[in-house]
Each structure stands twice: as structure tokens, then as C-alpha cells.
Amino acid sequence: MDLASLLLSQLLLLPVVTVVSGETAAHPGYAHAEEACSGMLEAEAEKATVLVPAPERREEFDGGRIVDISHYYREDMPEWESSEGSGEFLQLARSMRNGSDIANFSELRLTAHSGTHVDAPGHVFEHYYDTGFDVDTLDLAVLNGPALLVDVPRDKNITADVMASLNIPKGVRRVLFRTLNTDRKLMWKKEFDTSYVGFMKDGAQWLVDNTDIKLVGVDYLSVGAFDECIPAHLVFLEKRGWCEDPIIWSWASADPIDTNMS
Description:
Elements: E1 6-7, H1 42-48, E2 60-61, E3 66-67, E4 90-94, E5 105-108, H2 126-131, H3 140-143, E6 147-151, H4 160-166, E7 174-178, H5 180-183, H6 201-210, E8 215-218, H7 229-237, E9 248-251
Parallel strand pairs: 6-7, 7-8, 8-9
Antiparallel strand pairs: 1-6, 2-3, 4-5
Helix pairs in contact: 4-6, 6-7
Keywords: Extracellular matrix, Secreted, Signal
GO molecular function: arylformamidase activity
Main location: secreted
């Protein structure tokens, strides 16, 4: 299978809250944004509101050199093994509206594995957790930089045979795997779907043994296929405690990337 051209992408993989411009409110993440001025008269609201153009929500920066592949957070974003989505995760705890406070203060509550995220080294190894291997121990030089975007066969999980068929060159350190998950738009469906595509244990082991890849990006909530979720995690994360340049995986959406795939 041919590979996509090398993307000069900045992998923004830590959770961020962004919104999309257009018909949506300025801050759609707030569940009660429209209720903030419910006690004000319409004329008073008009006086208190400063009309400014809506901000531009971009995915590409610096002429396309940096690409933000993170999902914006929303209440109907899928959560692991949940049919209800993320729910209300963002609230305006204190507001400047109507002169009631000196600044706006937001309160964010969600799991560390929501949306676009990277796992801490102690996610599946208790001794790493006890030692303190959290996300602060990850190498930002690995998390950011050029990445190769590849299309995975749409009829199977990522097995050893699939990895071998992709012919990923030696020296490539960051790879985004675009799968059937993107075609099915699973990250835009509220209910968690156990049929998502991910790595099988043998596929993860093949990657570790035969490539120079240090960052793996996939397009749903877990790097491991549902039936082999933990075994795949164990393969990827096993050497995090001592390896100078460890295998790092993260969830990343390929949805916004417009790339011609061969």
C-alpha cells in the first residue's frame, strides 16, 4: 500500500477546548451560556454587549506548517463505554456579565482520557503510576513535529500483517493511522462504539519490533481494538519507565486533514 506524503504537522495532542465559528454560539461548550443574561432587560443587554467580530477558528497555522488535529470538546462527544457522551463538562462559574464579577472564571470537569489526549505512562502499569510517570514525563520533542499520515485497510483491525503491508520506512518517528473510524465519523457520534478499529496485540508488537515509530496517532478513543485493548496498551507502554525515547501513543482525529491518499 502506498503511503501518504510526509505532513509537516504540529501534533497538538493535549486536551484543549476550542469551538467552531459560524452558526454556533461564541462559547457552545457552556451548557447555560444563553441563560447568563436572563435577568436583564433587552435594552440593558444591548448596552452591556460589545459587538466584535467572531474569532476565526483555524486548523492550519503558519501557512500549513502547523496543523491542529485535535477535536473541539462538546457535550455529545463520545466517552469510553458510555451511551450518554461527555455531558456537561464546562461551566461559567463566575461571570462579568451585568457587572457581577471582575472577570470570567470557567470550570472544566472531564476525564483525562476524553477526546484528543495522550495517555500517561502509568495508565496500565501500577508500578509506573506509583513512581510518578505522568504526562509531565513525556518528551514534547516526540509529541510535536512532522508526521506521516497513512490509510489503513478498511476491512480489518491493525494486525501484524496490516503493519507489514504498510511498508512504513525506517526513520519515520510519528505516524497517524487513518481508519474506518474516520469514514464512519465515530468521534461525531455520542454513543460509544465497541466496533471501532484499533491495534491488535500482534500489530502493536510488530510496530515496536520493526519500526522507528515513537508516536502513534489513531482516530478514536483508544489505540487498542476493543477486544485486545489492554494487551495492545501493555505492548506500547511497557518500556516507558526506562527507555530514553519511549513509544508514545495518542488519540488524534484525521478528520480535518485534507490530504490526497494514493
